[in-house]
């Protein structure tokens, strides 16, 4: 989902009454970011509190290329990383992930090996259907074992866009919450549903209900589900004891617009890019009785902060043996403080841009290659800012492109290199970058190698279902990352 | 101001708490339009309830050119037009205009000749400063006579952006309301302030207070003023007896962005164009005790509806001897009804586009000429949609460009001509256009002739102030309208 997909953030159809109400009852973050303009690195960052370049969710196969976790990826979340649920366990939390894991699908990467107690969902995106010969359909797991595959046991009708997956994930969430409330055990629920990722789907009851087409139907179903989850917490009497945060893992995929892609509001470009449209996200903190209603924050936030903030809520300290990029947002959320901190915009292991305060400096610009663009792949449809949305990788290390995001949230008017304002701002930003780079220890890149043999041929549990497939010979290769 | 300039509509700095609260207490219109992408035709339409092509606020000097009311214009509002205040008078209303009139500055066009009882403000835009030789500075009137000139007696500091005009206009409004309340006489206040038109200004207390720069300072001052006006109505105990509507006369002038131009949110282009960014506007109806709080409407609305709605509120019928384009919105506002009606997008006397429901068909596309574009005049900075934001006037009469504004509010993805959806929608829209054109009787064009001799050399009252200037010989010419 994109920043502009919420009614509260100016989506002109205004079809998210529940999220809007969540914002009205809680705190709406207007300057909240993902750690990467792409799904799995962003999720890895959320759960580790660390930038993808540290936790390994990047590639070195090509300069400044985005990489993620398709089913032929060899890598995944390293054992050396400490995930939020692993830490929360120490405070007695029961942890559940519902939806897409996306941190590696091979046995050693299984979420239950990384701190989660329960899982219902899939290890990869719900792409398909596949033929189960060249490529297996993506499995859906319940805890340790698969319980079926997408398109086979968990239907997605690509023609009509119908699939009841969000309803399944909603029911799982409500049941888990009920169970935890009944057993009086603290819990961490990571509700990481697949929607609104393409191929976009919605349940029958939502199909055709949005002004925005199928994508809007999917947004409405998410909105409705979140309303039901919050209501459930209230009905069970645990809302004042449960911190809820809503956000997304990357900007709307404009490449799939208008049928399968959403809105980044007034921001430039979308998913895959380090412009605001690729990484600025809707974000709402909700905690009745603790967060005063109707608050808005301009704190620069990041999904990695959810790691540190959750630890803080559980009375835990973040690990001290490694660099943590997330910060504890509780002073922001509960006392309205503003913490001065930068936002780093990466593509692969290249720092493309940095923001501090209202200034953003681009050290590299790139949308996608001319070659890909020529094939109709467009991350910035209808948008073209000369020298900014470039189709070659342009380096600006020595004279960064500078934008003032207050006056120019759409990144359309670079500041004059000659201005005093430019020099003052770039000096500060470049100092932050130097500091950042000086102490940076990149993790082992996890997204370099691909191998058809590692795909989801025979996930645990496949025997019981008669769903084991024959894997081809191992033939590891460098993964191709076109973006 | 543009659609995207309100926090409630997704402006990322969220700096309009009073307008946002007005929306939360009233009805927010998401699909509300001006009658023209330019100031004075739009204002003429508001006050007459009729499209500029009917009331004369257009030019035939060039095909599909926008025209307005600079101080060398010969024309103005024809006597044959019936203005809202003229009609309200019959129901005992006292009518005041505060701010920019813009319906002609020659004596016969004076607002007090057209139904207003009081005026404080100027006949034209606050451009300047002028030298009073080639061109006089724009006068500011109190009622029948001028009381000074902009830049002379009413300072605007173009360097710092400081001017206290909005404060003057605010105080005028508060005083008028108090007076009317004291005398128990019904009133119509047309608070038509100059801000945020370029050159952008704000009072000292607002300068530098916005994240958005000077333009944001001006928006904040307007927002603050509206809060004060609404408060004043409440304090006087007449808020439940006073209908208030907030809107703008055209989309944000992106040509002046980022310093002097605002935001049209997710919409395409800005002022001067018939894309959504040029004509879709923020719009809020407020009437405590009558409009339930927090309502949102998708009614296709237009500034011309304020004519019909105001008459309806006063218990009056619209004139029956002429075509009125505005509709009475009270059933929408009070009962939540949706009235099926089209929106017509004109440039000059050319119907460029039409909207009905969620479909919009463009019969002509044009941003501006290559010549003007080459001079750096850009109505769509950073936006470029192939075949849509054209720099030549492109006719699509026989195969209109069709957009679905629900799925594609940014007008980036024209529907396929071959689709059934296209054919169904275009059939309906073209029917509406035929119907509209069949009965259209264009008014005498008022914006064709310009003459330096008619400028504000010696407005009434200049003698008392010693501010009469010598007019040059009359030399009427066709006005040049580049856009």
From TrEMBL, chains A, B:
Glycosylation site list: 164
Q: Which domain of life is it from?
A: Eukaryota
Its Enzyme Commission number? 3.1.6.4
- Main EC class of this protein? hydrolase
Task: Quickly give the catalysed reaction.
Answer: Hydrolysis of the 6-sulfate groups of the N-acetyl-D-galactosamine 6-sulfate units of chondroitin sulfate and of the D-galactose 6-sulfate units of keratan sulfate
A Gene Ontology molecular function term for this protein is: metal ion binding
Per UniProt, which keywords does this protein have?
Answer: Calcium, Disulfide bond, Glycoprotein, Hydrolase, Lysosome, Metal-binding, Signal
Please share the entry's free-text remark on the cofactor: Binds 1 Ca(2+) ion per subunit.
Q: Where in the cell is it found?
A: Lysosome
The UniProt annotation places Ca(2+) binding at: 39, 249-250
Positions carrying 3-oxoalanine (Cys) are 39
Q: GO CC annotations?
A: lysosome
Active site positions: 39 (nucleophile), 102
> Which cofactor is recorded for it?
Ca(2+)
Please list the residue ranges annotated as the Sulfatase N-terminal domain: 1-315
Q: What is its main location?
A: other
Subunit structure and binding partners:
Homodimer.
- Similarity section: Belongs to the sulfatase family.
Q: What is this protein called?
A: N-acetylgalactosamine-6-sulfatase
What is the source species? Mohoua ochrocephala
């Amino acid at each position: 989902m994109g920043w502009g997909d919420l009614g509260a953030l100016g989506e002109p159809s205004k079809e998210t009454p529940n999220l809007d109400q969540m914002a009205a009852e809680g705190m709406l973050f207007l300057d909240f970011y993902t750690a990467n303009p792409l799904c799995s690195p962003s999720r890895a960052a959320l759960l580790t509190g660390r930038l993808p370049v540290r936790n390994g969710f990047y590639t070195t196969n090509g300069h400044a290329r985005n990489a993620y976790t398709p089913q032929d990826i060899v890598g995944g979340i390293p054992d050396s990383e400490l995930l939020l649920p692993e830490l929360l366990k120490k405070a007695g939390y029961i942890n559940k992930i519902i939806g897409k894991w996306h941190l590696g699908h091979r046995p050693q990467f299984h979420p239950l090996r990384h701190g989660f107690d329960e899982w219902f969902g899939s290890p990869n995106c719900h792409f398909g259907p596949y033929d189960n010969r060249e490529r297996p359909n993506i499995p859906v797991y319940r805890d340790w074992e698969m319980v079926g595959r997408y398109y086979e046991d968990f239907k997605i009708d690509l023609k009509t866009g119908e699939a009841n997956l969000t309803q399944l994930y909603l029911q799982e969430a409500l049941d888990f919450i009920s169970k935890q409330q009944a057993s009086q055990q603290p819990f961490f629920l990571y509700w990481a549903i697949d929607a609104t990722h393409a191929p976009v789907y919605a349940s029958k009851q939502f199909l055709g209900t949005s002004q925005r087409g199928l994508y809007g139907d999917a947004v409405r179903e998410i909105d409705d589900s979140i309303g039901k989850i919050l209501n459930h917490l209230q009905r069970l009497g645990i809302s004042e004891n449960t911190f809820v945060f809503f956000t997304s893992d990357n900007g709307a995929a404009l490449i799939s617009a208008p049928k399968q892609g959403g809105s980044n509001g007034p921001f430039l470009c979308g998913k895959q890019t380090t412009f605001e449209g690729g990484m600025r996200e809707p974000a709402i903190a909700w905690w009745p009785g603790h967060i005063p209603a109707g608050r808005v924050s301009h704190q620069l936030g990041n999904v990695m902060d959810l790691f540190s903030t959750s630890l803080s809520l559980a009375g835990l300290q973040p690990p001290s043996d490694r660099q943590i990029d997330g910060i504890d947002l509780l002073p922001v959320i509960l006392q309205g403080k503003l913490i001065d901190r930068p936002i780093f915009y990466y593509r692969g292991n290249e720092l493309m841009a940095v923001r501090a305060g209202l200034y953003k400096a681009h050290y590299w610009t790139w949308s996608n290659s001319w070659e890909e663009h020529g094939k109709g792949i467009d991350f910035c449809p209808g948008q073209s800012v000369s020298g900014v949305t470039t189709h070659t990788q342009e380096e600006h290390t020595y004279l960064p492109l500078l934008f003032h995001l207050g006056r120019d949230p759409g990144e359309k008017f670079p500041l004059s290199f000659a201005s005093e304002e430019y020099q003052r701002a770039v000096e500060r930003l470049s100092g932050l970058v130097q500091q950042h780079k000086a102490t940076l220890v990149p993790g082992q890149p996890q997204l370099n190698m691909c191998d058809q043999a590692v795909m989801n041929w025979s996930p645990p549990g496949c025997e019981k279902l008669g769903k084991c497939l024959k894997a081809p010979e191992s033939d590891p290769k460098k993964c191709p990352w076109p973006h």
